[in-house]
Write a structure and sequence with these properties.
Oligomer: heterodimer
Structural class of chain A: alpha/beta
Strand order of the largest sheet of chain B: 14-13-10-11-12-15-16
Largest sheet of chain A: 10 strands, mixed
Distance between the termini of chain A: 61 Å
Number of domains of chain A: 2
CATH architecture of the largest domain in chain A: 3-Layer(aba) Sandwich
Number of strands of chain B: 39
Helix content of chain B: 25-40%
Number of strands of chain A: 21
Structural class of chain B: alpha/beta
Radius of gyration of chain B: 29 Å
Shape of chain A: globular
CATH superfamily of the largest domain in chain A: Class I glutamine amidotransferase (GATase) domain
Distance between the termini of chain B: 41 Å
Number of helices of chain A: 10
Radius of gyration of chain A: 20 Å
CATH topology of the largest domain in chain A: Rossmann fold
Largest sheet of chain B: 7 strands, antiparallel
Number of helices of chain B: 37
Strand order of the largest sheet of chain A: 10-14-13-15-16-21-20-19-17-18
């Protein structure tokens, strides 16, 4: 096995073995606590700029398949850190190994790391920049390369992951039953196909699949599409998608949001939620090490029900700071952070977590129907 | 929602004796429930017939009843205590079934008792296969094709639809009892008949076989606000076809993509909602077709279970405790997560390690039993281990089993045999998989034979290949650090590495230390380190070093989270997996040691690997190391923690075996010095000891060969008791009456244990066996209890019923026994507990006391004695072991009681068809119950009722006894007749009884024509059976009687002393009425 090194900005060195592509990458080191779903995590565009550490220890178990992807064109993470890489995968849908997949897409992976120690370090000292290399064996040299790195705060990462061209989407959520793929459609009473335009800040396919299942006609547009162009198309609703990095850096997104708020029913997810918060005149702040996993309890304050949610964010909206304009709708029961809001007058709501799952629990999926109802009310 | 204020008093039902399918896990759950409910201010009324439980400690509940778990007794308790609610989900199937019985009989309604946790409707929907299947279809989930049948005709019709191979599952049985697979019509008819009989409601599910499919379990919890969370996913290593209790299981699920896992999760949530378990935990099993991912629901348990105990230990999420709180109206988000303190229980644990459970079997105790693993559970215990990877976790689990395995030891090279061992699921399959890889079989071949997922097989393959690498590349003189580190991180024991490299375990340890390679400890924290954890629940691993730029790379720089304190502390070694001869009793003692030492201000550190127990609850000791109990793993902890001492005398043989090796490493063993243990165990030294004290033991000798044995036996005189040396729990011990039998035994025994000689003891015919448990501080010796056995000497003490106080011994005999016990304790320098087994020959005025065995440690009977006399002996002993004097503890007098407490053993014969129920020197019971009353007869009848061996109150008693028992049986038969029962006997016995003027109906033996005794049994004409036998031939000839008794659930006894006790019980029951009384009432006045 080829040696690899992971060096953190504060000078901590982890030795491991390379199991992905050869090379050297820099990114913000975060950890994800999901026990399943590495393929979805790898292909989630929100991880652009980040090196993801999996806290679960066995990775590669079920290989790679053709369906469980959250974006086109392979992984979006900068690097992948695991405790043990398992080369012999076993699953009836698998078409290849995780290692081959990473190699094919040029993603550096490092295994044999005490990922728990790394996670505890991140938890105690915060997410920070790190470098993985399979080519440089001198940790000092690697350290030199990142010790003064400014980090990914303030950087617009959306531009790397947003679609270049607009496109239509029709695939729904599916489940496997025997050998065939069953699409699940949520049957709406009105049977009407509403048209939604999705601002792609790095949208996950699961969001699009859920929209399709909820009966939407979907057009995905590039992140920088001017608001006017969107309004010209006269959609029934607009979705601000998830995406990577610092929301404040997505200036054009905030601008467009400002112009669209109040004009059309709007739903925001994750980065979309943050952009909406900023557009409403609020502020966002960075969490110490973010939320990345599939087990965070979020209370839907309207129903008092607890939903176990998929999470992947480093920033939060200061919803209270928005004053009377919005109502808090969701709260994270782990750390009390604000997870969702709705405007008191305008047709707008958004959530910080990932109701589309992929990976993670489907508890919060019902919110896509809430979007439909909002549009229905406005029509 | 806040907790309910409209209920104040809650009745909790325990699971009764330890049996296959229901073990310590329900003591763990019941104890947690007691604690949780009382913390919330509720009054808890507890009922359990098992005295060896922590939950029946008088401090655990407000009112504690050790009474039979029958509807009749429960109603009496309800009537007296008037509880507001009954929580039926903590005591396994036993409690659930009782709750159903009480509800259906209208008892709950009559006394206004509300079922909380699971409603009657939910229980029935989950347990009745038809209702369950309908429910699943309603929510769009598939179940295997199946039909519930109540008769042979229905069954024959059903099979046309279901098709072969078909699984038969009787409804409402324990641990899947009676489940079987039929491959053809003939087998099907036979199995169906049996299954119909086994089901208390005569209902059997005939089901499409999903043999070979992947098997999963999810542990689900739901609160009154309909919030549902999954606590743990478990993937079975053994595919469908092997009972999940007998399967090796792994957490979390390993080979599911997130999509498949979420689909299963969604299904589980839908199931718990549809079944309508309003609050609490459930276990839901799924099968997945490995070819195409088709998923079917197998079953659901609407209660805490063995799996939920495992899931609790595997994740750090205490399911039973939370379930109890949910049952009284709290919601998940209102309950804090103990481990992280700041986050709520409304979340799903995520783990950053792999957990492996391996069942422990006891086939060596039942050589006649079929060792094939099927859908009927056969294991008696289990171990769990935690490692960062599956390989590490698996190898740690192997050495946790305590079957003298320290890794994947080699097996036969014969490929045919290997194939056979792979194809038929058996307890040793794991090692044969490794062997198959060793001899060159491919993963595909092995998979085809076993249907075990290639992911697991490949992991084993990596281990086996690495063994080769260690063998060829590891040089103890020039050790390669990275090779050794990898081996250790994959869970290789020092012992196995030594074996592979031809060196000693000690040497490997030294090498490891010289390289700075130490085990580090990681925390089980429910959250994969996302939040800080406050509960030191730890497991060992070998991780990779981390270092800082600018500092030297150092093998020592591995992160360890154990953070030992500088408090004065004591390590308590647990008892490992449950097995026959070493079960819950020892866990009870260990837990008491923890409680006692904590009271004295010590930090308590528990080491154990049994997930079922109270001792491995992170709430019990201050620090918990979930680790194998081997010298390597224990030393790692001791070196890190540096305790004042280690307690080895409470966990049975497991820690005791470590006493000398630990002492050799300079570890201080608390209490009785290991040398005293040796003095009691070494035959020669023991003889000298007795000689010095002027005490007697039965004549004995040793033999290295058959010829020698014949000579020794002749000298001593038959009958003799023979056994291989240093074998415990009465294993391979037999009583032989003549030379032929002796020769036969020698051929078998010598094969069983070649390096050790065979021990031959005089067997004392018709002697009364007596057990004594004492506690000593080195000066004062207090006799906790003198137990007179019901069954005569020669029957393993663990299998005999016994009584405190003695029911037939004269006071002077008891005094003499006490005197001898005291002398032994003093001479051995016992500090702590000691158990002595005596045999008393009483003849007219004379008596002779013989010493059979001395064990200077906690015995199996400690919890029973403690509950009987109201003194927590284990607790007292633990305090004594750290220097307290009995005087200081206020215990100087032998406790005496006005009531009678009878212990009875419970046997797993119904799980092992073909095994004879005759008792002997080899222990076979899995658990025990206690009956307590002012009258011996009634106390005995309560014990029998608890052991499901009801005293007959009317109807016919069948008697067939050997000649020498015939005179004794006359009085017994007379008593039966006197109280209105009738006697049926085989010719010889009948003639004898008639000669003594008794009215007897004669019946045929099996070969004597029809109708015979078996017909009578089948027609349910017999209410009790007394059957004793002379020798091996008679045993074989009369086997069918006992087999039928077992099959048709007719209570029976195989000893004349047992029959005598039954007669006394009958007299007691006929002359006075059954009453109940709590432990607190017995002991507080």
């Amino acid at each position: 096995m080829k040696k690899a090194l992971l060096v953190l900005q504060d000078g901590l060195v982890f030795e491991g073995e390379a199991f992905g592509a050869d090379g050297e990458v820099i990114g913000e080191v975060v950890f994800n606590t999901s026990m399943t779903g590495y393929q979805e995590i790898l292909t989630d565009p929100s991880y652009k700029g980040q090196i993801v550490t999996m806290t679960y220890t066995e990775m590669g178990n079920y290989g790679i398949n053709q369906e469980d992807i959250e974006s086109a064109g392979g992984p979006k993470v900068e690097g992948f850190v695991v405790k043990e890489y398992i080369p012999y995968y076993s699953n009836w849908r698998a078409v290849g190994s995780l290692s081959d997949y990473l190699k094919r897409h040029g993603i550096v992976g490092i295994s044999g790391i005490d990922t728990r120690a790394l996670t505890r370090h991140i938890r105690n000292y915060g997410a920070q920049m790190g470098i993985i290399s399979t080519v440089e064996t001198d940790p000092e040299k690697l350290y030199e390369k990142i010790k003064d790195h400014p980090g990914i705060g303030g950087v617009d990462l959306v531009k790397y992951v947003t679609t270049k061209e607009e496109f239509k989407w029709s695939e729904t959520v599916w489940t496997w039953s025997g050998k065939k793929k069953d699409s699940t459609k949520i049957t709406a009473d009105d049977q009407k196909q509403y048209h939604v335009i999705v601002y792609d800040f790095g949208v996950k396919f699961s969001i699009l699949r859920n929209l399709a299942s909820a009966g939407f006609d979907i057009t995905v547009v590039p992140a920088s599409t001017p608001a006017e162009e969107v309004l010209e198309r006269n959609p029934d609703g607009i979705l601000f998608s998830n995406g990577p990095g610092d929301p404040e850096a997505v200036v054009y997104g905030i601008e467009n949001a400002r112009k669209l708020i109040g004009r059309k029913p709007i739903f925001g997810i994750c980065l979309g939620h943050q952009i909406l918060g900023l557009a409403l005149g609020g502020r966002t702040y960075k969490l110490k090490f973010g939320h990345h996993g599939g087990n965070h309890p979020v209370m839907d304050l309207k129903t008092g029900r607890v939903e176990i949610t998929s999470q992947n964010h480093n920033y939060c909206v200061d919803v209270k700071g928005l004053g009377d304009k919005v109502r808090l709708t969701h709260r994270n029961l782990y750390d009390g952070t604000e997870e969702g809001m709705e405007h008191v007058e305008l047709p707008l709501f958004s959530v910080q977590h990932h109701p589309e799952a992929g990976p993670g629990p489907n508890d919060a999926r019902g919110i896509f129907m809430r979007f439909r109802e909002l549009i229905h009310k406005c029509n | 929602m806040p907790k309910r204020e409209d209920i104040k008093k809650i009745l909790l039902i325990g699971s009764g004796p330890i049996i296959i399918g229901q073990a310590c896990e329900f003591d763990y759950s019941g104890t947690q429930a007691c604690k949780a409910l009382r913390e919330l201010g509720y009054q808890v009324i507890l009922v359990n017939s098992n005295p060896a439980t922590i939950m029946t400690d008088p401090e655990m509940a407000d009112v504690t009843y050790i009474e039979p778990l029958t509807a009749e007794v429960l109603e009496m308790i309800i009537q007296k205590q008037k509880p507001d609610a009954l929580l039926p989900t903590m005591g396994g199937q036993t409690a659930l079934n009782l709750a159903v019985e009480l509800a259906e009989a209208g008892v709950l309604e009559r006394y206004g008792v509300e079922l909380i946790g699971a409603s009657l409707k939910a229980i029935k929907k989950a347990e009745d296969r038809d209702l369950f299947k309908e429910a699943m279809e309603r929510i769009g989930l598939e179940v295997p094709r199946s039909v519930a049948v109540s008769s042979m005709e229905e069954g024959l019709k059903a099979i046309e639809y279901v098709q072969f191979p078909a699984i038969l599952r009787p409804a409402f049985t324990l641990g899947g009892t009676g489940g079987a697979v039929a491959y053809n019509m003939e087998e099907y008819r036979e199995l169906l008949e049996k299954a119909l009989k086994l089901s208390p409601v005569s209902q059997v599910l005939v089901e499409e076989s999903v043999l070979g499919w992947k098997e999963y379990e999810l542990e689900v919890m739901r609160d009154c606000n309909d919030n549902v969370v999954i606590i743990c996913s478990i993937e079975n290593f053994d595919p469908m076809g092997v009972h999940t209790g007998d399967s090796i299981t792994v957490a979390p699920a390993q080979t599911l993509t997130d999509k498949e896992y979420q689909r299963m999760r969604d299904a589980a949530i839908a199931v718990i909602r549809e079944i309508g378990v309003d609050t609490g935990g459930s276990n839901i099993q799924f099968a997945l077709n490995p070819e195409d991912g088709r998923m079917v629901v197998i079953e659901m348990n609407p209660r805490v279970s063995r799996s939920s105990a495992l899931a609790s230990k595997a994740t750090g999420f205490p399911i039973a405790k939370i379930a109890a709180k949910l049952a009284v109206g709290l919601s998940l988000d209102e309950i804090p997560n103990d481990i992280t303190r700041e986050t709520p229980a409304s979340f799903e644990p995520t783990i950053d390690y792999v957990v492996t459970k391996i069942p422990r079997f006891a086939f060596e105790k039942f050589p006649e039993a079929d060792p094939t693993l099927t859908t009927q559970m056969k294991s008696v215990g289990e171990v769990m281990s935690i490692g960062r990877t599956f390989k590490e976790s698996l190898q740690k689990a192997l050495r946790s089993l305590e079957i003298d395995s320290y890794g994947f030891e080699e097996r036969t090279e014969e490929e045919e045999l290997i194939r056979e061992k792979l194809k038929t699921p058996n307890a040793e399959r794991l090692w044969y998989i490794a062997q198959a890889i060793r001899v060159g079989m491919t993963i595909e071949e092995i998979h085809e034979l076993t249907w075990i997922d290639p992911w697991f097989l490949n992991n084993i393959k990596e281990i086996v290949e690495f063994e080769e690498k260690i063998k060829s590349e590891f040089n103890p003189d020039k050790p390669d650090e990275s090779l050794l580190r990898k081996a250790k991180s994959w869970g290789f024991s020092d012992h196995r590495i030594a074996e592979l490299t031809g060196t000693s375990e000690d040497r490997v340890r030294q090498i490891r230390k010289s390289l700075g390679m130490r085990a580090v400890y990681k925390m089980v924290d429910t959250c994969a380190a996302e939040f800080e954890a406050y509960t030191p629940y730890l497991y060992s691993t070998y991780e990779s070093p981390i270092y800082r730029i600018g500092s030297q790379r150092d093998a020592n720089m591995v992160e360890c989270e154990s953070g030992p304190t500088d408090r004065k502390k004591i390590v308590i070694l647990g008892s490992g997996p449950n097995r026959i001869g070493q079960g819950i009793e020892f866990d009870y003692c260990c837990v008491h040691a923890v409680f006692a030492l904590r009271e004295l201000g010590y930090e308590t550190i528990m080491v154990n690997c049994n997930p079922e127990t109270v001792s491995t609850d992170y709430d019990t000791a201050d620090r918990l190391y979930f680790e194998p109990l081997t010298i390597e793993d224990v030393m790692n902890i001791v070196e890190l923690e540096k305790p004042e001492g280690v307690i080895v005398q409470f966990g049975g043989q497991t820690p005791l075996k470590l006493a000398v090796p630990l002492e050799r490493q300079g570890v201080r063993i608390l209490g009785t010095p290991p040398d005293a243990i040796d003095r009691a165990e070494d035959r020669k030294r023991f003889k000298e000891l007795l000689h010095k004290l002027g005490l007697k033991q039965p004549e004995s000798g040793t033999a290295m060969s058959t010829d020698e044995a014949i000579k020794v036996a002749k000298q001593i005189g038959y009958p003799v008791m023979v056994r291989p040396s240093y074998v415990l729990g009465g294993r391979a011990m037999e009583i032989v009456y003549d030379e032929d039998s002796l020769v036969d035994y020698m051929l078998r025994a010598v094969k069983a244990s070649p390096e050790h000689p065979v021990l031959i003891d005089k067997y004392l015919v018709n002697a009364t066996e007596v057990d004594v448990d004492a506690v000593s501080d080195g000066e004062t010796v207090v006799i906790g209890g003198v137990m007179e056995h019901i069954e005569e000497a020669g029957i393993h003490s663990g299998d005999s019923a016994c009584s405190i106080p003695p029911y037939s011994l004269k006071p002077e005999v008891v005094e003499e026994i006490k005197r001898q016990a005291r002398a032994l304790a003093r001479e051995l320098g016992v500090v702590g507990l000691m158990n002595v087994q005596f045999a008393v020959k009483q003849e007219e005025e004379d008596f002779e006391v013989y010493i059979l065995e001395v064990n200077p440690r906690a015995s199996r009977t400690i919890p029973y004695v403690s509950k009987a006399v109201g003194v927590p002996l284990a607790k007292v002993a633990a305090k004594v072991m750290v220097g307290k004097k009995l005087r200081e503890l206020g215990l100087t007098e032998d406790p005496s009681i006005n009531h009678v407490a009878v212990k009875e053993a419970v046997f797993p014969f119904d799980k092992f068809p073909g095994v004879d129920t005759i008792l002997g020197p080899e222990m076979k019971s899995t658990g025990e119950v206690m009956g307590i009353d002012l009258d011996f007869g009634i106390a005995y009848s309560k014990a029998e009722a608890s052991a499901k061996n009801q005293i007959p109150m009317k109807g016919k008693v069948f008697i067939s006894v050997r000649d020498e028992d015939k005179p004794a049986v006359v009085e017994i038969a007379r008593t039966f007749l006197q109280y209105g029962l009738e006697i049926v006997a085989t010719r010889g016995t009948a003639r004898f009884l008639k000669e003594h003027g008794l009215k007897v109906e004669e019946t045929n033996k099996l070969k004597e024509g029809r109708p015979n005794v078996v017909d009578l049994i089948k027609n349910k004409e017999i209410n009790f059976i007394i059957n004793t036998i002379e020798n091996a031939r008679a045993r074989k000839d009369s086997f069918y009687i006992r087999h039928s008794a077992l099959q048709y659930r007719v209570p029976y006894t195989t000893t004349i002393s047992g029959a005598r006790a039954v007669a006394r019980a009958l007299k007691g029951l006929k002359t006075s009425s059954l009453t109940i009384k709590s432990l607190q009432e017995y002991h507080n006045n």
